[in-house]
Amino acid sequence: MQKYWGFILALVLLASCKEDKPLKQEVVAVKADEIPVVVKQYGFNLDNFKVQQDTVKSGDSFGELMLQNKVDYPKIARVSEEFRDTFDVRKIMVGKPYWILKSKDSTERAQVFIYENDRINYTVVDLRDSVVAYKEKKEVKYVQREASGIIETSLSEAILDQGIDYNITNNLSEIYAWTIDFFRLQKGDKFKVIYKEKFINDSIYAGAEPIEAAYFEHNGKPFYAFNFEADSLKNLDDYFDESANNLRRTFLRAPVKFSRISSRYNLKRRIRYYGYRVRPHKGTDYAAPVGTPILATANGTVTESTRRGGNGRYVKIRHNGTYSTQYLHMKKQKVKRGDFVQQGDVIGWVGMTGNTGGPHVCYRFWKNGRQVDPFREELPAAEPLAEALRPKYTEFIAPIKDQLDCMGFPEKESQVDLLTLNQ
Predict the structure, then answer these.
(1) pTM of the shown model
(2) 193-218: per-residue pLDDT in tens?
(3) 59 φ/ψ sector (left φ>0, alpha ψ -120 to 50, else beta)
(4) Which residues does 131 contact at the CB level (< 8 Å), separation at least 6?
């Protein structure tokens, strides 16, 4: 009987999460022949030009492209000298798309050069009359999306099964890095996310924005995360739980994204190759392909960037008077001694230098000059939310938490829940 009433209560709660929203429809009758079709891109009516569209090839340069399209050398020189801050002609990259809008007369001289910096940002060099260069953005539409999933094998597979942008996987792992061990997820763990997707011209997908809010259920325990601007002056935001606790620590959980731990910190490790003698392993090994970026796990100053013995190429960072970290077996370092790095900066790439049987980074963690296991340390939390902001935060997350709570999971799981309630 209790299970029956539980089922009824679940239906009532589900109904309370749904509001009937009237559909707003507008129907405007327009005769097709009354509106001239104007093909407009990048702010230009393309019908006014002869259009050449291509991508930068190896050996191409802005100067050569312009000379081929009958632009006078003085104009080319002016672009390269006077507009370097806007468009550095030395830095055009192979593979980047560009457009050349030419005159429609017999000269077919280039009038406008458009260079796509990325899918959203582009640079315009207007060569008509006096030379002008400026940066612009394509019109981007942001659409909020709700998504959820149930883990059967891995988080990444559950993300892809629901048609969610793969970058959400990394985003989730970073948000919950110190709350959930993503190397030990359980079958049946669940997640919900709210984020925005970007579309160019209403139809071309241009990626996902950072997660706005999330719910993760691990081993039956719920974990909430809400993105909130903790410092408006510095335009800094962070993720906090429903009680305003910061989910981040001063250190990242791992120096590489979505790698697996191939060997943990173990002072009693015995190795067959050495006759099963005790060979302490004072680091945590993260297996990853050669060339995978290695990240600084916290802010600090590089004290060593060199190559030595079995360590191979490595970097050591002093974070403060208590903590230091070291990253071994690099293919190549990106930083040098004395450099200041911030959490998440790339400091090198995974390799196989020194004594190693495969590509990985050996991450060593030092506390007061002694190597320790970071997973057993109670590391300091990141900057807490200011007391003055807590009332505002509580008000801010209330409707978002309701939205998360009202989201369901994929149909397969819903059917399992109903069967359980009816037993």
Answers:
(1) 0.65
(2) 999 999 987 788 888 999 999 999 99
(3) left
(4) 75, 78, 79, 82, 83, 125
